[in-house]
Design goal:
The structure is a homodimer of 345-residue chains. Chain A has 345 residues and is of the alpha/beta class. Chain A has three domains: 47 residues, 434 Repressor (Amino-terminal Domain) (Orthogonal Bundle); 131 residues, 3-Layer(aba) Sandwich (Rossmann fold); 145 residues, Response regulator (Rossmann fold), CATH 3.40.50. Chain A is built from 13 helices and twelve strands. In chain A, helix 7 links the parallel strand 3 and strand 4. The relative contact order of chain A is 0.11. At the A-B interface, helix 4, helix 5, strand 2, helix 6 and helix 11 of A face helix 4, helix 5, strand 2, helix 6 and helix 11 of B. The first copy, chain A, binds a DNA duplex (30 and 30 nucleotides) through helix 2 and helix 4.
DNA sequence: GTGGTTTACGCAAACGTTTGTGCAAGTATA
DNA sequence: TATACTTGCACAAACGTTTGCGTAAACCAC
């Protein structure tokens, strides 16, 4: 009873040819001038036997799979999980299914993963690259399959991307700290040389420079991990000149930093202030709620899918590059040391 | 230059037949007694032109895609994001790629999503069902494609599953509250009738019964959302008999509850205690750190993949049903009202 | 030099679609 | 009444693999 239901079996049961059945079931009945009666018959039979076309065969024949690839460094990071969530949902709304690759920040995983996506004939790929070299991806985008970058991008690339204006974010976050009287600000970065890090750091440095404090810059760290935030903070808390504020470049780094601070018995923001990049529901519930530069995660996800769809539909590479403005969300993790000085002095 | 690289083009360039090329490139050279020299030639050419087999064609022909489907209610929920993370990584370690479907707790999304997975000939499906009826999935598991349930399962089903021992979790969490002197405990549940909710509630009720407090049971709520936790807590804070403790059945419900409590100006745990299900990094950083029944997320993910692989390899349904023990993590969100009464009295 | 193995490969069908082209019968036009 | 469209469908190739079977040549034994 669970026979195979193919276009062929339907053709045999209805007496029409395979091509006619195909045209009817793929909505080309009109164009092929199939008679109303025939359409009826075939559709009935298709419904009766619960026919579902083989997407493999369809993809093989048409070279279109209605599938996109999503390549991210880590689904464990809530930032990427949120990004993935909106991308998967948006893609579905366009009729696309998403294949997810988690690279764990490893370049060879990235290559293998993308190769696997291409072997599957995905119609497009959204990727947060962990490597530095755009050439490979550019080549794919030009000759094979549309690629859209999110979150991270390359120096001068023809690849379209959508990301936060990281320079602005770094600048404004630092300005906020400066305006609250902090002059000894530690910046804990993630994967060095990645564009977001470089831009955020550039913003940080420029803000310091604006106050003539460039030589006070302190940049440490090397990965977007809790561990990194923890260790770097641990180190600095024991240093001679303890910073009055920490600028964490991601939510993971933030958590590590907070852990270290708590262990040292210091209080946020009384003893040390902290500000972070990223945004998520939990940050409002942390003790104290964390002041942050919020990235527009949903917008990034939605726009990246939209760009990819455009590139797929127009069958050509596009070159849209979008930088979205981050937003400062002020909570209670940054103390105003000017007021404090007044009070004390 | 970016010619198509198929087994056919390689066959033309090397002068060997398509079948020979196929056998060599799919590792069947030995069995087919292809000479060492031929193997060399073909492999060289394949490497030279960077040949990657079409997984569509391969899947169509062999009925094996090395792909699994993952169906979850919401990637926004950090619990499912963590689950997805380990599943995607583990599957990759077995050589499988994962297609993710986000049902948004909607049964028709679930059906469509799974239909789409089947149309793609996935080799197996891991699913957290949002519907109540196992029949459809059981049928798929029997006749078409292996299915493994995670997190939620059905009353009496032949489907294999791996989940937390939710009864035990509900029971122990409630016991912990009772042992701390709470007798007025509000339980805020998620999607009703889902097995985890029913089991956790059963545990809650049984613990109360053990102290002869069954008539004090208060169960409210209807979904695993922040909104639900917020509204139910809001309601109860204004009721005549304010509970002394809240048992939130998920991290989302927890966040909503905390928000409501804060808005009311009450303090945790001095005015009201709270305990939750689930576990994640952030819960340690919340004010105060939240006491919780931790589900073994990674184990659930790993085991579900393992079971699915077993079912795929053995080409038959399996009936392993695993309940993993949750673990109580004591933090600071539950007050001991006995001690307090002593002090006050 | 005959018969039987072994070695090394090729032929062609099949997986389930889509689609360009062909063609008979019916209808309209001249 | 011949000509020209139109209607309604069928044929068969193609997408890129895998695989059962067939077979020519070489080798061996006698």
């Amino acid at each position: 009873m669970e026979k195979k239901n193919t276009i062929i079996s339907i053709s045999e049961r209805t007496g029409f040819s395979v091509s006619t059945v195909s045209r009817v079931l793929s909505g080309k009945a009109e164009a092929a001038r199939i008679s109303k009666a025939t359409v009826e018959t075939i559709q009935q039979e298709a419904k009766r036997c619960n026919y579902k076309p083989s997407l493999l065969a369809k993809g093989l024949r048409t070279n279109k799979t209605n599938t996109i690839g999503l390549v991210i460094p880590s689904m464990e990071n809530i930032y990427f999980a949120n990004l993935a969530s909106t991308i998967i949902r948006d893609a579905r709304a366009y009729g696309y299914t998403t294949v997810t690759v988690d690279t764990m920040e490893d370049e060879s995983n990235e290559r293998n993963g993308i190769d696997s996506l291409l072997a599957r004939n995905v119609d497009g790929i959204i990727v947060t690259p962990c490597g530095q070299d755009p050439a490979w991806l550019e080549n794919i985008n030009r000759n094979t399959t549309p690629v859209v970058l999110i979150d991270r991008y390359f120096n001068s690339t023809e690849l379209p991307y959508v990301c936060t204006d990281n320079y602005q974010g770094g600048y404004e976050a630092t300005r906020y700290l400066l305006n609250n009287g902090h002059e000894n600000i530690l910046c804990i970065q993630g994967t060095p040389y990645s564009m977001p890090v470089r831009e955020r750091v550039r913003g940080y440095l420029n803000a310091l420079r604006g106050k003539g404090l460039e030589e006070r810059a302190r940049i440490v760290g090397d990965s977007f991990s809790i561990q990194n935030g923890y260790l770097e903070t641990k180190l600095v808390l024991n240093s001679v000149s303890r910073p009055t504020a920490i600028f964490a470049l991601s939510n993971t780094i933030l958590l590590g930093a907070i852990k270290a601070i708590r262990e040292s018995g210091l209080s946020i923001p009384n003893d040390i202030s902290i500000i972070t990049f990223d945004n998520n529901t939990f940050l409002d519930f942390i003790d104290p709620p964390v002041t942050r530069m919020s990235q527009p995660v949903n917008e990034i996800g939605t726009l990246s899918v939209k760009l990819l769809m455009q590139s797929i539909d127009e069958k050509r590479p596009i070159d849209t590059k979008l930088q979205l403005q981050p937003q400062l969300i002020v909570c209670e993790s940054v103390a105003n040391v000017l007021l404090e000085a007044e009070r004390v002095g």
